[in-house]
């Protein structure tokens, strides 16, 4: 889902709507986090919806509709990962021109659903003049503390990242270079292309972060700089970066501004406890990238201001 | 959501997908009914997703984007009503060209959510070359028997309808006639236009039908003839109609073939028990329109075959 940051495009519409509507009861979270937290049947249920539009989120000259379907599922499941939840059910609404091969699109959706350990339980199909896929995902919280919101970080918390970023953006650059070249494409870059076409939500990492005491968490969907900004704003803290881990083959700009890596960035007081939780889950330790500060306007890296990069989908 | 009827357009894609995927555990219902029935947090949760595309499901020359938003919410909530559930949470993914007034669209969505006693808990927005709205709704079952599927009718069951049908299709006809006329529009038809632009899901009626012993239920979204056909096919029964209740101002063809009335049609063994449950909820009694028969191919009305009318959205 989308964050609520007033004054800009889609976020402004959501913010205006949010302020006209009734707010959630105690224990629920509605508009403004990665997923909604709902009371249904006694225990908290996570629910999110995410939209992928050809020409906005995906260029069908560079990927198949199966890739578009996979990416839409991964993006929505990642919202559940960013709460520390386990994704359970997936519903898919898909539309496209009559020439769209819906069986191929469904194949990509089904593969992504299986790869993330979920189940496809329903959906809807329609004609449309362009390909649109909307994925809704349910999730549950299993054991330990409740869902990790964006808003719980406090000054002094460490900032951690589940892995280097920028691979997806570098994969897009690789595909564009291949498409623009009349020569036979150079080999290499397959891992980057795979990161772009077939990203994976970090469900195990999100759960380990929650069990390890994460105070706030968000997935890197709009770019590390932008998403860290969302987390800091929701928590009312600033941040000071010590390092920006760049995926092999990517640039620093791609690491800071490239979206759709779906690594998770989170805040936590005790790095040792986090590392132990990751080890208990058989995961490599997350990377410490900085700290939360008491000055909400601070967005620094190595003494300089973090460049404003990253994107807002649509309506700009 | 959509039914699974092999061999035609969108239904064929869903059917092929369904047969390649794992099926639900005991007590859950996935692809193929109005809404999915899911085990989440102990008690059954209903979940559905429904897509409205301008130019396919709605003509923006005849309605505003607020109407489109309202109709998308009503259509999805109606899937919960058709299970006998109470609709609880709504998520909306909306896209459109930059000229789309998203505040107006949101207004229609928010009004419909409030009118159906639900809460808007999240969503996503994007650019797209045409207006697309996807609504996902959660629901719960409160007291009495479990959710009413399409598949439980048996020969001898009565068929009941919560109200006359065809008003929505007649409202569309009225709007088209006004648009085609160069003269000042004639008065009248406001109730029909309202039925088309601002339909209401029959949540109270669906719950009363469930409490009154409904064995199978579906909402009239594709037309009475088509939707009765879906119910009969899922249940493995035929049907014999005694009457087709036509809304004032509508034609018999509109009553049989017009979708989007969102009245509910259901099967039940005991009309007296159904009527008592409707009376207990302060509702007028539903209309007995026929009976289920043992011959699955029977689709009769007054000794003749029910004409094949109604529509399949998209991909035809």
Fold blueprint:
The structure is a homodimer of 316-residue chains.
Chain A: H1 9-20, E1 36-40, E2 43-53, H2 65-81, E3 86-96, H3 102-115, E4 119-127, E5 132-140, E6 158-161, H4 167-180, H5 190-197, H6 203-211, E7 214-219, H7 224-235, E8 238-241, H8 252-257, E9 264-268, H9 271-280, E10 287-293, E11 299-301, E12 304-305
Helix pairs in contact in A: 2-3, 2-6, 4-5, 6-9
Low-confidence stretches of chain A: 3-8, 312-316
Tell me the strand percentage band of chain A.
15-25%
- N-to-C SSE series of chain A? HEEHEHEEEHHHEHEHEHEEE
Strand order, biggest sheet of chain A? Answer: 7-9-6-10-8-11-12
* Protein structure class of chain A: alpha+beta
In helices, the fraction of residues of chain A equals 25-40%
Oligomeric nature of the chains: homodimer
> Distance between the terminal alpha carbons of chain A, to the nearest Å?
17 Å
Mean pLDDT of chain A: 90
What's the number of domains of chain A?
A: 2
- As for the CATH topology of the largest domain in chain A, it is Phosphoribosyl-aminoimidazole Synthetase, Chain A, domain 2
Number of helices of chain A: 9
Which chains make the largest contact? A-B, 63 and 63 residues
Q: How large, in whole angstroms, is the Cα Rg of chain A?
A: 19 Å
How would you characterize the largest beta sheet of chain A?
A: 7 strands, mixed
Level-1 CATH class name of the largest domain in chain A? Alpha Beta
What's the CATH H-level superfamily name of the largest domain in chain A? PurM-like C-terminal domain
Count the beta strands of chain A: 12
Based on CA inertia axes, which overall geometry of chain A fits? globular
